[in-house]
Amino acid sequence: MTLAHDVAGSGPTVVLLHSTACDRRMWDPQLPALVDAGYRVVRSDMRGYGDSPVPDRPYDNAQDVIELLDLLGVEEFALVGSSGGGRVALEVAARWPHRVTSLALLCTALAGHEPSAELRAFGEREDELLEAGDVAGATDLNVELWLGPHADEATREAVREMQRHAFEVQLAAVEEYPPIRPDFDLADITAPTLLISGDHDLPDFRQIAVRLSKELADARHRELDWAGHLPSLERPEAVNPLLLDFLREHAGAGRERRG
């Protein structure tokens, strides 16, 4: 299956991977800025999100991304991932390091991370609401947790729409198939990496950013004192310059590494 996606602009390719509270529409505030800066932007919906159907067999999120890029004829690319999309981006960068020129991770999740009590409690409450058929309640729970104080009502409504759509699509599935989780080693990541965390987010995501800043070969960590879990939506006017500066700094880095 080819992931639902869109492509805009021309130049070096930047791939945008969405949070699992959203879909590819979460990058609407970044798309014009990236295109205007001279990038070809590819954004896709993971299976069960946005316009991509739920999987009908076990699936591999990272392989899905690579197959889409192969279809589009993209050999080298920069990756930008938010939360669950960051977890997928890390896997892509570790399994196909020669193809990733740079890696920007916003409040990224991490495979194998032991969740805090607060994050576990959120997951349990979300499950309770969904099992009771209260999709609206589960949606509101996500909106309140994941957005920081700078998110306006239009942003909250956009996240509410994306999250509710994901719940409705996934709950309508006849059968649930688990993702395939191949082994990979973070030490294989060679791409320069920008890690962004928010002071109003759950502590898990700052802990992940700090850990990755120490484990990855070429990584820097930027904390945003105003941000929640979705800073690219909360204040795009602050996040877009950070992304553009980072991408400009590392343009062509993949070719240089292979020398």
From TrEMBL:
Gene3D superfamilies: alpha/beta hydrolase. Residues 14-240 form the AB hydrolase-1 domain. GO terms for molecular function: hydrolase activity. InterPro entries: AB_hydrolase_1, AB_hydrolase_fold, AB_hydrolase_sf, Epox_hydrolase-like. Keywords: Hydrolase. It comes from the Bacteria. Pfam families: Abhydrolase_6 (PF12697). GO terms for cellular component: membrane. PANTHER family: AB HYDROLASE SUPERFAMILY PROTEIN YCLE, MONOACYLGLYCEROL LIPASE. This is Pimeloyl-ACP methyl ester carboxylesterase. It comes from Micromonospora inositola.
